[in-house]
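Input record (one chain):
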Amino acid sequence: MNDPFLDFNQECFQINQLQFNLPIQQLESCPYCFEIFDNCKTMKDHCIQIHETDYMYICIYCQKPSKRKSDYNRHIRSI
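The corresponding structure, as predicted from the sequence alone:
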């Protein structure tokens, strides 16, 4: 004969276990380079900044393109 109290306790235990295991974090992957990100916003920011931006800075000495001013400045200092 099944004990209803025991069944109830087992069910509560299972529910508690599920609560501690959730939420399962959904990782996002960049469609261009497949780098993994914690969330969709971070992945979208990465795509815009790295993959979808035109080269705005071009070295006057060697024509190396850079998307960010900081990368351009670092390159110029290294010449």
